[in-house]
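Pasting as-is:
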Amino acid sequence: AALLLVYPAWATLYHQASSDAVFATGLAFWALLLARTLEQPSTLRFVALGAGIAVLVLIRPANQVLVPAVLAALLVSAPWRRRLAWTAACLIAAIALLGAWALHNGIRYDDASVARGGRAWVPFLRVWLADATIAPENGDASRRLAGLIEREVLTKGPHARLRVPLDAYLENGSNYETVRLIALSDSVLGRGENYDVLFDSALEAIRENPWTYVRGVADTFWEFLRQQPLREDVVPREQTAPSPPAETFEADGVVLPNPQAFALVEGVPYGFVWCASDYLDSCILDRPEVVWDNPEAQRRYREIVSRIRAWDADLPSREGVDAVTEILNRITPRFPRPPFWIAIGIVGLAIRRPRNWQTIVVLWACAAAVLLIHAASQGVAPEFALPLYPLFVVTGLAAVGGEPKKRGPLKADPTQSEP
């Protein structure tokens, strides 16, 4: 606890408006529950553990990779019949809650899934943005995607005016254009397509360039473990209209539209994830009727925009203390990062063999799965890894300082009588 208190990088999560602090808190409580469950197993505790997995998934959908943690019951010292029963109880609890959420989505949104869209991001986003290996010659799905882009993007709007070629478009992807392709998949190919064209084209690119993808994922995974997040000065942002951005930018001699200069009409129904600017005014439609015919939907859009504009104007709501930022930024780079704690933990597991080592192994596997799913689809961002840093600190210390596992049963002293 003392080490975490002087580690400002983790505390930084709690000074941001995002789901990262919620995930960090949920993970801490779930890790405690896991430790207690493996130490003193019971059916009720494994049910709670499965429900905790579902809660972590609802906090951040990528945490679906934690579902295999239900197999932790197999590591408990107990008869196999009981282990299998505990595993089933844990799995049923997780699936029941997630199934109820999927049913809710099916009733409300006509899409019975926990979180729709994962196939559009994993692994497509990394393959397109980082690897730049999407190409029509990779296979059938890639040719379908190329045809969709040529018909629905390059022949319309600023792309048509600038005569942007297909290869230049594919080499200069962005989150902005990813959301455009997601919207086109839904509107042109149909929601039943479930982003097959994006997912399959990414798999084809990986098959054609496997080492490019593997090296990229490995590098990102390693960088996740070596983050040195520094605090920025906290000052209220000016909520003034920005200077009009340039309408184009140049890449390798090709002129392309600047995403910050154009509102992505197709992306409006998908929220603000597509926004290519820090200023909301460049991401908001003055006329929502362009997207929605329903007057109620138009009213709701204006209401949401007004609320988000007010929140945006209030963040941050005060100025920070420069001296504190300076001190924290001096501490953070000197604090040992996860590779140090993992190495300590490996040595501890090998030499001391602490009791309840299963908890450490399961937590490491869970952390690796969470980091891997983000490395498989995203670039390096501190907020993806920081919620896991306390896990590495605590498990490393537990492996070294935990109570050693007993080597065998103690022999009774024949000179002592039974009480």
